[in-house]
Amino acid sequence: MSTVNPAIETSPDHGHADDHGHGHEHHGSFISTYVFSTDHKMIGKQFLITTLLCLFAGGALALGVRWQLAFRWEAMPFFGMLFKAEGGQISPEFYTMLVTMHATVMIFLVIIPILAGAFGNFLIPLMIGADDMAFPILNMLSYWFMWPAIFSFGASFFCAGYGSASGWTTYPLLSALPEAAPGSGHAQTFWLIGLTFIGFSSMMGSINYMTTIINMRAPGMTLFRMPLTIWSMLITAILQSFALPVLTAAGFMLVTDRMLGTCFFIPSGVVVNDTAPTVGGGQPLLWQHLFWFYSHPAVYIMLLPAMGMVSDMLACMSRKPIFGYKPMVYSMAAIAGLGFIVWGHHMFISGMNPALGMTFMVSTVMIALPSAVKVFNWIGTMWGGRLVFNTVMLNCIAFVSLFIVGGLSGIFMAAVPVDIYIHDTYFIVAHFHYVLFGATLFGCFGAIPFWFPKMYGRMMSERLGKIHFFLTFIGFNGTFFPMHLLGVSGMPRRYADPYQHEYLSHLLPMNKVMTCFAILMGFAQLILLFNFFYSRSFGKPSGRNPWNANGLEWTAPSPPGHGNFESVPICYRGPYEYSDPNHSEDFWLQTDRPAPKSGDTPPVIAGH
Amino acid sequence: MKRFWCLFFMFWPIAAFVLCWIAPDMNWWYPSNGPTGMIAASPLGKKIDSLFYMILYITTATFIGTQVALGYVLFKGAAATDEGNTSKAWYSHGSHNLEVIWTVVPACVLLFIALYQMDVWAEYRVKTSFPQETKRGAIAEVTARQFEWRIRYPGLDKDGQPLPLMPKPQPTDLYTVNDLHAPVGTPVMIILQSGVVQHSFFLPELRIKQDAVPGLDIPVWFEADKSGNYTLLCAELCGWGHYKMKARMVAEPEDQYLEFLRNLSKSQNYDGVPDAATEVAAGE
Predict the structure, then answer these.
(1) Predicted confidence (pLDDT) per residue in A374-430, tens digit
(2) Around Cβ A210, how many Cβ atoms within 10 Å?
């Protein structure tokens, strides 16, 4: 007996989400439906498509970096056209810009918004059984505040230096003194303005997510019946709302340093390129503390939601309950809590008090523990399951497999003495790409086909999905695994030409091979884009619950109409009741009313 | 097809392991151009390397263990959907005992790793643990600029012995650019400064790295085991010329080091009158 029959097929729909309106029919204009929409699903899709397009911009910048590392000072295809006067070469200042803007685009315009913005928006109300977010207009604003950020970062490309070039970490004084580098003029100011807008956008999202998850859960959806995706979104939102104000304040301080001469981060008597000495009184290390106080928790903001989503997908595709649900929740909370006291590991060799190095080392090493517990539980989830090897599952297995490497390589850098040598080498580049791409992006590549049917009522192509996965996985490992070896070889980051140093000159052939893998990986993403847009219009209609999953979102029509559910869903059990021997099917929807047993009191609906 | 994917997921850890295994032979490991080859050129560097290897062994064992476990559950999970196999998946919500084991064991290992590192870090950075030899004072002040290393040595006294290095520049001081000389076989200390933006003092063969921060004077000590030329470069993004802050650190026996300072003094104080030059160097 189910409250909602999952077998109801919805008619193939070409985008008029309002056709499915239930309860309150809502036929808005094109503008209010597709542009300034307050519907969480539309906002989620807007975020998703925007971030996928930004992924290509960020990827193109990365290929510029890889081109220079493999074929230094040779005319670059496409990008080279911008520099006809210089013979099509990438200049050193342009190289530092590429490094900076690649990280900026990927972190602030892809990873953070695709997790919280796209999937958070789309999934939170659907998975907790709410009709929309708590603050729909705030939600709309959180998307539209991304555009000033995109334009600001974009404007940065058109200023002197073709973009900010002080690294995504924007350490002063390089970023504080406009004369310090070609990209430190207006380009840097625009960069900081963009960062501020992204901060506003994230903050509006976080407030919304917390409020919605705490207040708007369906009857019966107790905290420990929430899917891990929702737990991860809640923890992320808390993390973000406590860490982000620090970055915003620091960003403003840097802007006033640059424009009003406040010298929060500028010591006295510094002369750059024959300009007048600075008045000073500030301390560059202050920026690093403030920046990393946000940006280290941000690493978990960029990872936790993917962990949550992968947990849901792994359980579904293994047809098994999640292994250790509560340890999973507690370990995410532990990651978030410890995440606030590990920022100093970015500053081990910065010249801060060496005693801090020791305390930050202990907290940093210990944060590996909850991550390890999660890995063991994911493997435990697959253990004894009936695995479905589809695109979703392959990407999730890749997530687990690659996250192991990212987690283990982190221990090297957490150990302060070892970090003395590998700090700022390619070892760190390898490490964070294994976490941010290997884990987070592969998680997203799984989440897109998994929830695509709910977004558009159609399935994505399995064949294209598998080809995309295969090429991306090969390209990823070919590009990033050798970076560990480059790091051990002592190759520093952000070098336009490392090979002029004798001890690095023999690494050129290896970098050429890595660049070939990177190009393969970059172009493989076109398959994803094609698959996404093709399946959106021509994919196989999916029905409500194509994966036989348990969550509340699968009881809503695909795509859900305005207000999401036909009637208020009632939640009777946790989201991971797969393969229960007492149930005929191998899945058990959270909304399925349990069969009354003789002598039972009627089921209690809420409050326990 | 499902078994292909299982093999696919087993293939890459094996490839990664093999790559790391052959890396030292292929020269894709520690820098090998210096006078000591792949072995760290300083006692501290050797300790850092041994800590690196300790972590490498622990993480490799974990890597192999988890990837084998992953492979096992994948093959088993693939077999579970073979034709004729209709039994449901294992209905399990986890195991309290397993959770305790795989929380407590890694916690102990991680705590051990963290505590085991403390001494080497203290030796490198905590001033009270610096080697006795460095208490005599710094041999030079290294100032990183966009994009070069300026090195200030103290001048020489009448007997041709180095004067103590003063915090402020003195008229007798001697200067070089991108050429740091230091006595071999003894711990020496430098004072690290930055002129404008942040830089990082990186001696890869000695495994030494320290950021140079505008406004801070940071003491850094190192000890080269063998005479010869070592690479000195910048490891913190400092602008467009970051990659070309190429310099050398020359480790040489004490007498050659003094000879170098004397020659430097001679050439720096050379006023164009050949005979007077030596007088000036010794007299002023």
Answers:
(1) 999 999 999 999 999 999 999 999 999 999 999 999 999 999 999 999 999 999 999
(2) 19
Given a cut of 90, whether residue A488 has pLDDT beyond it is: yes
Rounded CA gap, A158 and A14, in Å? Answer: 38
Phi-psi region of A87 (alpha: psi -120 to 50; beta: other; left: phi over 0): left
The pLDDT value given to residue A76: 81
Residues of A in contact with B45 (CB under 8 A): 421
Residues of A in contact with B89 (CB under 8 A): 318-320, 384-386, 578-579, 586
d(CA B169, CA A117): 56
d(CA A342, CA A559): 42
Output the CA angle A438-A440-A443, nearest 5 degrees. Answer: 95
Most B CBs within 10 A among A365, A367, A462, hence the mutation to make, goes to: A365
Cα gap A50→B261, rounded to integer Å: 62
What pLDDT digit, counting tens, does each position of B36-75 carry? 989 999 999 999 999 999 999 999 999 999 999 999 999 9
Task: Identify whether the C-beta of residue A320 lies closer than 8 Å to the C-beta of residue A378.
Answer: no
How distant is the Cα of A491 from the closest Cα of chain B, in angstroms? 9
Q: Is B29 helix (H, G, I), strand (E, B) or coil?
A: coil
Number of C-beta neighbours around residue B254 at 10 A: 11
A212-258 per-position pLDDT tens digit: 999 999 999 999 999 999 999 999 999 999 999 999 999 999 999 99
Token pair 């192991």: residue? A404
Unique residue bearing structure tokens 């560059």: A284
A272 contacts on B by Cβ (under 8 Å): 146, 196-197
CA distance B164 to B143: 18
Instruction: Give the nearest partner residue to A369 out of B23, B88, B103, using CB atoms.
Output: B103
Q: Smallest Cβ distance to B207: which of A361, A377, A420?
A: A420
A427 neighbors A483 (Cβ within 8 angstroms): yes
Rounded to two decimals, the pTM is: 0.92
> Mutate which of A317, A386, A394 to disrupt the B interface (most B C-beta within 10 Å)?
A386
CB contact under 8 A, A489 and B28: yes
Residue A144 has phi, psi (to 5 degrees) of -75, -15
Beta strand residue intervals within B97-173, DSSP E:
140-145, 148-153
Backbone conformation region of residue A599, classed left if phi is above 0, alpha if psi is from -120 to 50, else beta: left
Amino acid at A248: T
Residue with tokens 């994917």: B5
Angle at B27 between CA B25 and CA B33, to 5 degrees: 130
Chain B residues touching A492 at Cβ < 8 A? 202, 233-235, 243
Residues of B in contact with A486 (CB under 8 A): 28
Chain A: closest CA distance from residue B166 (Å):
19
